[in-house]
């Protein structure tokens, strides 16, 4: 990935922990410890900016305002306050997301990754999810270069999941949008379609994961959630 | 400046010029009357034989006529003993049929003059009469030149004029009158009257005026006295009430504006007392809250310290720490964070005030945040936590911190009381202009009668026992309250998957 991230956090311990976690996750991290320094920064030089609200020598919201005058790069705000007013104000000023302390390092990494993730849909008529390539217009699917023969329902099912790759889609939604209502499709019918599709994906069948209590998800790689 | 001094000064400032001008006005009127009476005398004298006498011997005419030695003029006839006319120059007694009106006026005048002369203690006045021609020159060589000031007034068209001059010991009143015939050596008559100038009159005026002013000021001071006394009592009452923490009002007497003031003060005092009591209540609540919070937070902190100590001991003995200890330490710290957030939410809700914030928020992001917060601890416990949100944003309004805390509590409970290998799912949907957030699990679940009991529990009374054995205490009570405040439905039921299902429902933002 090798994205450049700016962290503005005045607490030494927390700051060095965050830097440590982000560096281990493969990011280049610059760390500033006060608001005045953050004011002077050019935000366009960073892929993402992580900003603590309570800072010495300048308020985080003022820093955010200054940054927003110069750039639209994503800003993730950290706050120890559970006060809704600060969060709402931060979002109004153009913050993309906020996190309340305390948070798990995994939580922070997931948020950062979510902000940096490129859109899955590269072009309107083409979807790429892991080894799967879908040409929506031509209705053609390839897995690692090998064409896949699918029924219309299986094709719609795969496209629906691929459009939101990584996110779980409920059974109810799939039944409503994928199955043919005239054939009285229900969740049981859906499960049958899914298991057939999984079989056709062969060794990549585990990409099509069942989400307990929810429905299904198309994973972008084998290990992701 | 004190009230009494201010009133006295104000009154003095008003009364002194008033009294002064009254005195001046009185003097002015008296002078006018004196001049008028001299003019009347001149006309009367000239029309009752004076003209004839004057015109027959203008070079000698003067009244009183010159004395035998040609010096001092004789006093006018009414000043001589007996009042009888002995002088040939004196007007003869009028005969019958000779203008009865003029006769009456002459009698009246003489009566008044005599009364004045005899009644007054001061020395009698002296009156002179001189005649002048239309050219303001007298044929009588003893006559003084006509006063230029009066001359100019007659020349300006007046028929009569007068002035008063005062020297140290005599006040001279001079009146001139143009006669109706206005020709001959006696066309204009000058009458001069000399009064002794006594400074008594001035003193009487000054003393009288001063006494009047003093009387006024004194009367006002007297009238103000009781008011000042009552104000003083009110002041003492207010001080006493303030020093007693407004427990006692000021006594009410009378029924005037001061009573109104006292009543207003008592009303204000009641309000102050009410606010003091409210502050005291709040402070008591805050103290309780801090005590309870301390208790609630110290417990998991102690447990956490225990876990960390065990880890350190294992490591110091070169023993690989147990995975379970690490997991419990992580879980405890997670619980601690959630507890502190809940205590914050509880303090916010405990005020019982209506919801202040109604900000728009997106449920999708909120659910995402809640899942991320608990994902680490769920994975640590071996509980699968997952969720689904629709592609489009589901929008609603409310206090986003409180709502997030409510959902977080429900998810945390579901994870916390599940077993390894269990599942928790959160599904967000938008249906019929309403959002639906379902949190369900395949954990041990809760008995139906227990569900009702949980919801009825108040976190206020159970704050100190947030770590209830059934573990659903504070968190669920807060979720219930948050939903009630927002007008959201909160449904607790047995999940189809075997555990508990909690459903949040509410209106979408327009």
What does this structure look like?
The complex is a heterodimer of chains A (225) and B (510). With 225 residues, chain A is of the alpha/beta class. Chain A has two domains: 113 residues, Rossmann fold, CATH 3.40.50; 98 residues, Orthogonal Bundle (Arc Repressor Mutant, subunit A), CATH 1.10.10. In chain A, the strands form three sheets. Chain A has a five-stranded parallel beta sheet, with helices on both faces. A five-stranded antiparallel beta sheet of chain A has the order 6-7-8-9-10, with helices on one face. In chain A, strand 8 and strand 9 form a beta hairpin. Chain B is an alpha+beta fold. Among the domains of chain B are: 196 residues, no CATH class; 154 residues, Heat Shock Protein 90, CATH 3.30.565. Chain B is built from eleven helices and twelve strands. Chain B has a five-stranded antiparallel beta sheet with strand order 1-2-5-4-3. In chain B, strand 3 and strand 4 form a beta hairpin. The radius of gyration of chain B is 58 Å and the shape is rod-shaped. Chain B starts with a helix and ends with a strand. About 7% of the residues of chain B have low confidence. Chains A and B meet through helix 4, strand 5, helix 5 and strand 11 of A and helix 6, helix 7, strand 7, helix 8 and strand 9 of B.
List the helices and strands and how they pair.
The complex is a heterodimer of chains A (225) and B (510).
Chain A (H helix, E strand, L loop, with lengths): L3 E5 L3 H13 L3 E5 L2 H6 L7 E5 L7 H11 L4 E5 L4 H9 L4 E4 L4 H12 L4 E3 L2 E4 L2 E4 L4 E4 L2 E3 L3 H12 L5 E2 H7 L9 H15 L6 E4 L3 E4 L7
Parallel strand pairs in A: 1-2, 1-3, 3-4, 4-5
Antiparallel strand pairs in A: 6-7, 7-8, 8-9, 9-10, 11-13, 12-13
Helix pairs in contact in A: 6-8
Chain B lengths: L2 H54 L5 E2 L36 H20 L6 E7 L15 H8 L4 E7 L3 E9 L9 E9 L3 H44 L13 H60 L6 H28 L8 E4 H19 L2 E5 L6 E4 L1 H17 L6 E9 L2 E8 L6 H9 L2 H4 L10 H14 L2 E6 L5 E8 L3
Identify the notable features of this structure and list them briefly.
heterodimer; A: 225 residues; alpha/beta; Rossmann fold; Arc Repressor Mutant, subunit A; 5-stranded parallel sheet; 5-stranded antiparallel sheet; 8 helices; 38% helix; B: 510 residues; alpha+beta; Heat Shock Protein 90; 5-stranded mixed sheet; rod-shaped
């Amino acid at each position: 990935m090798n994205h450049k991230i700016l962290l503005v956090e005045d607490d030494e311990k927390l700051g060095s922990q965050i830097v440590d976690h982000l560096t281990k996750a493969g990011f280049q991290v610059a760390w500033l410890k006060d608001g005045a320094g953050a004011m002077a920064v050019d935000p366009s030089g960073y892929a993402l900016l992580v900003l603590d609200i309570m800072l010495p020598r300048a308020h985080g919201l003022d820093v955010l305002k200054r940054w927003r005058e110069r750039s639209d790069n994503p800003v993730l705000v950290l706050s120890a306050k559970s006060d809704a007013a600060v969060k709402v104000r931060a979002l109004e000023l153009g913050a993309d997301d906020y996190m309340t302390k305390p948070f798990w390092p995994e939580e922070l990494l997931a948020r950062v990754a979510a902000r940096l993730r490129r859109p899955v849909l590269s072009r309107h008529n083409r979807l790429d999810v892991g080894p799967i390539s879908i040409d929506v217009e031509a209705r053609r699917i390839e897995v690692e270069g090998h064409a896949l023969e699918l029924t219309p329902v299986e094709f719609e099912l795969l496209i629906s999941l691929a459009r939101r790759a990584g996110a779980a889609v409920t059974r109810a939604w799939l039944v409503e949008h994928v199955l043919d209502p005239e054939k009285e499709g229900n969740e049981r019918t859906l499960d049958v379609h899914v298991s057939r599709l999984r079989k056709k994906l062969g060794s990549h069948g585990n990409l099509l994961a069942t989400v307990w209590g929810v429905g299904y998800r198309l994973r972008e790689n084998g290990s992701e959630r | 400046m004190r009230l009494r001094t201010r009133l006295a000064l104000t009154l003095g400032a008003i009364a002194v010029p008033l009294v002064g001008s009254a005195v001046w006005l009185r003097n002015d009127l008296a002078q006018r009357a004196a001049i008028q009476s001299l003019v009347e005398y001149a006309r009367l004298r000239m029309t009752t034989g004076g003209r004839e006498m004057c015109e027959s011997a203008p070079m000698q005419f003067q009244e009183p006529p010159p004395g035998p030695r040609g010096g001092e003029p004789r006093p006018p006839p009414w000043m001589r003993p007996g009042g009888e006319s002995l002088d040939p120059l004196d007007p003869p007694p009028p005969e019958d049929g000779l203008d009865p009106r003029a006769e009456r006026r002459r009698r009246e005048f003489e009566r008044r003059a005599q009364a004045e002369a005899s009644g007054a203690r001061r020395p009698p006045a002296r009156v002179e009469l001189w005649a002048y021609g239309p050219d303001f020159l007298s044929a009588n060589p003893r006559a003084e030149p006509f006063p230029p000031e009066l001359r100019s007034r007659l020349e300006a068209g007046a028929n009569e004029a007068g002035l008063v001059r005062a020297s140290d010991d005599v006040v001279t009143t001079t009146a001139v009158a143009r006669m109706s015939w206005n020709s001959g050596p006696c066309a204009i008559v000058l009458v001069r009257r000399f009064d002794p100038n006594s400074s008594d009159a001035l003193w009487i005026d000054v003393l009288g005026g001063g006494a009047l002013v003093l009387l006024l000021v004194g009367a006002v001071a007297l009238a103000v006295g009781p008011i000042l006394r009552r104000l003083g009592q009110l002041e003492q009452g207010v001080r006493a009430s303030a020093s007693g923490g407004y427990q006692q009002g000021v006594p009410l007497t009378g029924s005037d504006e001061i009573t109104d003031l006292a009543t207003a003060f008592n009303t204000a005092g009641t309000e102050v007392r009410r606010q003091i009591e409210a502050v005291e209540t709040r402070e008591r609540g805050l103290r309780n809250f801090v005590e309870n919070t301390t208790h609630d937070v110290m417990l998991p902190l102690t447990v956490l310290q225990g876990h960390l100590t065990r880890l350190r001991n294992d490591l110091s003995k070169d023993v690989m720490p147990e995975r379970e200890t690490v997991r419990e330490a992580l879980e405890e710290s997670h619980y601690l964070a959630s507890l502190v957030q809940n205590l914050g939410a509880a303090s916010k809700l405990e005020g019982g005030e209506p919801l202040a914030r109604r900000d728009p928020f997106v449920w999708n992001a909120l659910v995402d945040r809640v899942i991320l917060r608990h994902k680490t601890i769920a994975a640590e416990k071996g509980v699968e936590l997952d969720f689904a949100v629709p592609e489009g944003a589901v929008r609603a309004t409310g206090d986003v911190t409180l709502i997030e805390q409510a959902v977080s509590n429900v998810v945390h409970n579901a994870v916390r009381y599940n077993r390894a290998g269990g599942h928790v799912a959160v599904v967000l949907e938008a249906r019929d202009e309403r959002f639906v957030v379902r949190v369900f699990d395949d954990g041990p679940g809760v008995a139906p009668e227990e569900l009702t009991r949980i919801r009825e529990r108040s976190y206020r009374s159970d704050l100190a026992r947030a770590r209830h054995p059934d573990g659903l205490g504070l968190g669920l009570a807060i979720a219930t309250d948050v939903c009630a405040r927002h007008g959201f439905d909160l449904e607790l039921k047995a999940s189809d998957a075997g555990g508990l299902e909690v459903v949040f429902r509410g209106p979408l933002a327009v």
